[in-house]
Write a structure and sequence with these properties.
Layout lengths: L1 H12 L6 H22 L6 H10 L8 H19 L10 H12 L30 H15 L5 H15 L6 H15 L12 H12 L5 H22 L14 E2 H8 L3 H9 L7 E2 L5 E3 L2 H14 L4 H7 L4
Antiparallel strand pairs: 1-3, 2-3
Length: 327
C-alpha cells in the first residue's frame, strides 16, 4: 500500500518545482475542498459553493448559522497556519503547534476552550468508546508528541500521518474540534513530507467514523489505514493530472450551472462518459438550453466523485444506481 504511494510521489517529484500559477491553483482548490469536507463531516451544512463564498468573499449565506460561517472561516485560517509549519520536520511538531491549530478552529466559537485541553469528562455521542480521563490528557499528549518524534524516521510518511490522526482523536484532548484538529495534523505531516493533503469526502463519513471506532474498541485499524491511504492516492492523482498539463482542479465559485464539457473538465472525465452516465440515470440534468443542451448543477461534481469511488470498489453501474438510491 505505502510503496504504491511512494512510487506516485516519486513520479510527482519529477515535475517539481511546479509552476507557481499551478501551485496557487492547487492550493486554492484544496483550501476550499478541505474546509468544506472537514466541516461537513462534523455536521456543518454549508455546501461547497457556500463555503467558497464565506472563505473567499467573506459573504454570509442566508439560512445558515453564525457558527457555520465561523467554522468555515476558522478552518481556512487554521489551514493557512498549517502551511506555515510545512518547512519544519515532522519530528519537530510540538504541543504548541497542535494547540494553535485548535485555537484557530474554535476562535470566536468557543473561546473558553479554544487552544486548551479539556478539563471535564466527555463522551462521543452515539459511540461506545470510553475516552481517557481528562486528568490524563496533558500526560498523554506529551507522550503522543514523543511518539511522533520517535516514529518520524522509521514509519512511512503516510503511515506516520495516519498514526498521528488516529492517536489524537483517540486521546480526544479537546472538548470540541478534535476531528478537525486531527485531520489538519495529518495533513501537516503529509505536506511536510512532500505529499498532497488528504481529503475525506462527506460521502466517506460513515466509513471513516466506523473504521475509527472499530479500531478504538480493540479491533483492527486496517480499514481506517486503508481509507486514509486511498484519499492520499486520490490527491496524488489530482496533482499528477495537473502536473502533466492535463486538467487542473478548478476554483469553486458560485453555483452557476455547468455545460457538459465543464462538468467533464472539473471531474477529469470525458464528455462521452458524462453523457453515458446521464443516460443511465447516474447524473441529473438541472436544465436544458433552448437548443436542448444539458446543464448540470455543481452538486453533480460530487456525484461524479461518488460514482468513481464506487467504481473503484468494483460496483457495477447497476449496483451504483442502487447504492445512490437512483433506481
Amino acid at each position: 500500500m505505502y510503496k504504491a504511494l511512494s512510487d506516485k510521489k516519486a513520479e510527482l517529484d519529477q515535475f517539481r518545482p511546479l509552476p507557481p500559477e499551478l501551485v496557487t491553483n492547487l492550493d486554492d482548490w484544496f483550501r476550499i475542498e478541505l474546509t468544506y469536507t472537514s466541516n461537513a463531516i462534523e455536521g456543518n451544512t454549508l455546501t461547497r459553493q457556500e463555503t467558497a463564498l464565506v472563505v473567499e468573499k467573506g459573504l454570509t449565506v442566508s439560512g445558515k448559522s453564525l457558527s457555520e460561517h465561523l467554522e468555515a472561516h476558522n478552518h481556512a485560517k487554521a489551514l493557512d497556519y498549517v502551511h506555515q509549519l510545512v518547512h519544519k520536520a515532522s519530528s519537530g511538531i510540538t504541543e504548541s503547534d497542535i494547540l494553535e491549530i485548535h485555537h484557530l478552529i474554535l476562535r470566536s466559537i468557543d473561546d473558553a476552550n479554544a487552544g486548551r485541553y479539556r478539563s471535564v469528562p466527555v463522551r462521543i455521542s452515539g459511540s461506545l468508546m470510553a475516552l481517557p480521563n481528562h486528568m490524563k490528557v496533558a500526560r498523554l499528549m506529551g507522550e503522543f508528541i514523543q511518539a511522533i518524534r520517535a516514529k518520524a524516521d522509521s514509519l512511512h510518511p503516510v503511515e506516520l500521518a495516519i498514526f498521528a490522526h488516529y492517536e489524537l482523536v483517540t486521546i480526544h484532548p479537546f472538548a470540541d474540534g478534535n476531528g478537525r484538529t486531527a485531520r489538519l495534523l495529518m495533513n501537516l505531516i503529509l505536506m511536510q513530507n512532500g505529499y498532497p493533503p488528504a481529503i475525506i469526502s462527506k460521502r466517506q463519513r460513515a466509513r471513516y467514523i466506523k473504521s475509527l471506532e472499530q479500531a478504538q474498541l480493540g479491533g483492527s485499524r486496517a480499514e481506517f489505514d486503508k481509507l486514509i491511504a486511498r484519499t492520499v492516492d486520490r490527491s496524488l492523482d489530482i496533482y499528477l493530472t495537473a502536473a502533466r498539463g492535463e486538467d487542473a482542479p478548478q476554483p469553486v465559485h458560485a453555483s452557476q450551472l455547468l455545460k457538459i464539457g465543464e462538468l467533464a473538465k472539473l471531474t477529469s472525465q470525458s464528455v462521452p462518459t458524462i453523457r453515458y452516465w446521464t443516460e443511465r440515470g447516474l447524473l441529473v440534468v438541472a436544465e436544458r438550453t433552448d437548443k436542448g443542451y444539458a446543464l448540470y448543477g455543481r452538486d453533480q461534481v460530487e456525484r461524479v466523485r461518488e460514482i468513481l469511488d464506487l467504481k473503484a470498489e468494483r460496483y457495477s453501474l447497476e449496483e451504483i444506481l442502487g447504492r445512490l438510491g437512483l433506481e
